[in-house]
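Usage example:
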Amino acid sequence: MKRFALSDTAIDAAAEKAVLDHAAAGACAIFEGWVRNHNEGRAVLRLDYQAYAALADAEGEAILAEAMQRFALRAARSVHRTGSLAIGDMAVWVGVSADHRGAAFEACRWIIDEVKLRVPIWKREHYADGDSGWLHPDNTPVSAEQR
Amino acid sequence: MTYRLLYFASLADAARRDTETLESAAVDPAALYAEVAARHGFVLARERLRVAVNGAIVGWSHALADGDEIVFLPPVSGG
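Running the assembly step on the lines above writes:
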């Protein structure tokens, strides 16, 4: 079964969590990434996510398959938004289930870190002053090195 | 050879397009990036990028073939 998905519509967290159900699981860890109204001291109005879909799917699947190998999990799943998002919208959802909490916490953290590092998705922020720009992985603006 | 290029994020902005079909003598992604960077004024150094050919990440000296789809990937910022 596919463990990673891109979605151009709102993430249904309850539906995603249902795929983690397992009778042997005693722990479930979930991370939700939300759109916040500020970054690097600037007021943010909304943002866009663009993905190279074919490769993003493959990289996302590879990360979750690797997580199943590295950690003692019963299930793992992640969904990342594309398109235009408003403040407070869920940008990314990661969920895992495991027999014990240690593996659940560690795997959830590892997966979101790897997604941010490897999956070809790019964020453009739109600012209150009318400006907009693409961001680097550390949330600094790409435009800074073009000036 | 004829290549199809896809551009994303800041590279698409700089190139003012998100796809391009290109006749080029470049035989690997390193040479092809130098060519399109000069033409479109890309400021991102190659060392900051990854490259994918036909949907898979490859090295900069990967041998390109006629008809390949090539994507130069800026540093990602998902999550």
